[in-house]
Fold this sequence. Notes:
32% of the residues lie in helices and 13% in strands.
Amino acid sequence: MDVYAKAPCRGPDHLLQYLARYTHRVAISNHRLIAFDGQCVTFRWKDYAHGNKKRKMTISADEFLRRFLLHTLPRGFVRIRFFGFLGGPRRSKMLQLARQLLQVKHEPDAPVSTPAQAFRCPVCAAPMVVVERLSAAKVCRLTAAHRDGFHDSS
């Protein structure tokens, strides 16, 4: 059986950048979050139906979390970046092979940033500190507790 694979129209670099947009993004980036008053979340969004205009939306915290969690993978599903040629210990060998097959020159990887460099305030550039990491299960517990008027101490 023959497989037809059309050449990427703008070259391999464009193709990899295109795929990266879908494999390495979170549901909403921090710079789009504008405000949270304890009840409602305000964020920026792009209205594709009306000329890509940037708009602001304010919704309840519960609705924001509901929409955000729609982007959480169900148990047993794996993100593309953790699977296939980008997954695990074979990543560097497979990327090297992909570059060779695509006849792309390898550029040295960017230096790895330290945690202090990775988390900087986008406004004042001061170092930011991770206070807590929330799992999807804890977010669900907190949302339920908030809705029921209780506070989760765990």
